[in-house]
Structures are given as structure tokens and as C-alpha cells.
Amino acid sequence: MQTGSFQWMKSLNKSTILNMVRVHGPISRAEIAKLTKLTPPTVTNIVNELLQDGLIVESNLGESTGGRKPIMLRINASRFYVIGVYARLGRLDAAVAHLDGKMVHQCAQELPLQMDQTAFIKALQAIAKEALAMAEADGQPVLGIGVGVRGLVNPRLGELVFAPHFNLKHVPIKTMLEETCQLPVEVENDVRAMALAESWFGQGKELDNFITVYAGAGIGSGIILKNELYQGVSYGAGEIGHTTIDIGGPLCWCGNKGCLEAHASTPALVKRARNMMEGGRKSVLHEMVQGKLSQLTEEHLFAALKQGDELAREIFIYAGECLGIGLANLINIFNPLRIIVNGSLTRAGANLMEPLSHTVKKHALSSSANNLSITVSDLGNRAALIGAYTQVLRKIFAPGA
């Protein structure tokens, strides 16, 4: 075997054992050999390297099966840090986390709604350096930085290809951050990052096939197939918000008519409520905005719903029905085990989820829908940030994924 091939195989085995300890630890060397089908000497040699690297530690003794009690191994979670950065319209969030995904530090920065590429990069660099300073104050080495950003992303190049909400194109996030921070950087679309977060730390943890759907200011999905994040040939997979649910529907910013996002995103719902009120519908929303309908926001809709306002309730029922059609299409194409819904629209609770589920049952093939569960994410608004640094964890523990 050539030296390069041997080193590659050794690296692959090292990651396999490291991930085995992460998933199943505390675990003995003998159990690792049994599960991985690697020889005991190979396991021993690689475990010794991982111990020397500080990535794993020996913990308590395990149960004996007749001989000496085995020494158990676990991830040395607090030995290293990873950093995640989430970029969305108007705000940057960053987190420092242990190798087990537990957040240790957080920081945030408000962004202007309009900014050019230079200002956007400077803001990213500033918050990444702030997070790095937090890690350095603890004396802990950082293994990498992951960025989740709203828009079309090329993760291979680490480039934000197009972000309509930021009005930015071809932003070299990976290159610029690596120059600034001198660390490896991973970049991914925010909703696909959410799917990674669910796969490692959320309701997708035990599932091979599931879909995360984000429904808020925009609508998108992250697809996990056979335990791998599906990105698409040109990294555009998951754009459920731009699937057509009504060919004669309202114009979407993408230029198409009747997109799901043009019907059920929060800006679309605010516009729908405003049109209904201008048409004479009574609602507590009139009082909330003091008759100034141009000032209506999604927060007003949620507040009115809480007060039992009928118009607000109808708005969220409509959103649930539209999303249900979109989800039924996903189910009929991908046949997932679970769909995990996230985003601000989930604040509407049963007013959204009940019509959504009813519409899915009506439009999805029963053969695909019968074994499906639709849930609301437990990770909530932390999902994209967790997913950002999960990219780094995936490179450490499962580099081939």
C-alpha cells in the first residue's frame, strides 16, 4: 500500500473511532473493535493517538464480563472549542461551544438592513474575533469556525453566492474569515445548517431520513438523506419556498408567481392581513397600529392572535394550509420519517400546526404519510447557530459526510 493511501486509511479509521466514542461513549477499546470491525491492535494504536491529542480521555471502569474491568473512553468535550456564526437580516449571532455541542459563550451584533459586501465581511470578522477572544480568555484552543447564512451558499468554496435579503452576491466568507482568524472555516445555508443541528442534537438525532422546514421571514428546508445532508448539484436543494402552490398567485421576489413563500412567509401574511383590513375586516389590529396599516408587523399578528382576534387566527390557519401543501409535496418526493418545523410561524401553535397536519393528510400519499411524524423543533431559534458550529464538529468526527 502506498504511504498516501495508508495515511488516508489511518485518518479514516481515526475519525471512525473518534465518532464511535462520541456516539457510544463511555465505551471500551474491545467494544470499539467489535463495532468497527477493526483489529484490537489498530484500535489500541489509534486510541493512544487520540489520547495524546487530547480529543478523548479514559474515564471510569466498565462492567467486567469475566476478566479485568475494562477502561472506558469518552470524548474530552471541554478540551477544545468550536465557534459558530449565524448571519441573518439585521443581526449576527456567535457562539463558542464544547465538542459535545454545549454552548459556553455567546455574543451578538446588530446589523444595518442595507450594507455592502465590505461592511458585511467586516462585521463577520469582528464578531468572529470577539468569539475567539472569549475562547482565548478561557485558554482553550479553537478547532474551527462554522458560518450559517441566509441565502444561496456554495459550501465547497465557502461563498455566499446570492443573498436577496442582504442584496449581496459572491461574498468570499471562507477566504476572508480564514485570513482573519487563521482557522479552518465552513460555510452553509442557514436552513441546511438547522438540519445538521437537528441531526446531531435535535429531533433528527436517531433518524437516517428527515427534513427540517423553516417558516418565518422566508421559507426553506434542509434535507437529510441516509444520514447525509443533501445539498444538490449546484447547492440549491431545499428551496421549498420557491415551489409553486398557486400558478395564479401573488408575485414573488424571485420573479415567479404563486411561490409558497409569497403566500405563507411572515411578510406575505402581513400583506394579506393588511389587504383584508383595507377591505373592511374588523380586527384589534386596527387599534394596535392606530389605523396606520403601513406599520403592521408580524409581531402585531402574534399579539392579536393571543387576544383571540379572528382575523389573526384566519391568517395563521391560511399559513398552515399553504405550508401543508408544500410539505405534502416534500413528503411525496422524499418520503421522510419526520418533518421538523422551525421558524417564527411556529409561535402560532395549534392555529398553524393543526391546519398544516390536516392539509398534509389530505394531499400527501397515504403510503408515505402513514409512517411520518411532523413536529416542532426543540432547538427553536438556536438551531441555525448550533448548526453553524456543527459543521466544524462534522469535519472533526465525520469528515467524509
Structural description of this entry:
The protein has 401 residues and is an alpha/beta fold. The protein has three domains: 3-75, Winged helix-like DNA-binding domain superfamily/Winged helix DNA-binding domain (Arc Repressor Mutant, subunit A, Orthogonal Bundle), CATH 1.10.10.10; 80-200 and 383-397, ATPase, nucleotide binding domain (Nucleotidyltransferase, domain 5, 2-Layer Sandwich); 205-377, Nucleotidyltransferase, domain 5 (2-Layer Sandwich), CATH 3.30.420. The chain is 44% helix and 21% strand. It has 14 helices and 16 strands. It has helices at 3-24, 29-36, 40-53, 117-137, 173-181, 190-201, 260-264, 266-278, 285-288, 298-306, 310-334, 350-363, 366-369, 383-397; strands at 27-28, 56-61, 71-75, 81-88, 91-97, 103-110, 142-149, 152-154, 159-163, 168-171, 185-189, 210-215, 219-225, 228-230, 338-342, 373-376. The strands form four sheets. Strands 6-5-4-7-11 form a five-stranded mixed beta sheet, sandwiched between helices. It has a five-stranded mixed beta sheet with strand order 14-13-12-15-16. A three-stranded antiparallel beta sheet has the order 1-3-2. The longest helix has 25 residues, at 310-334. The two termini are 25 Å apart. The model is unreliable at 1-6 (pLDDT under 50). Belongs to the ROK (NagC/XylR) family. Keywords: Carbohydrate metabolism, Xylose metabolism. This is Transcriptional regulator, MarR family. Transcriptional repressor of xylose-utilizing enzymes.
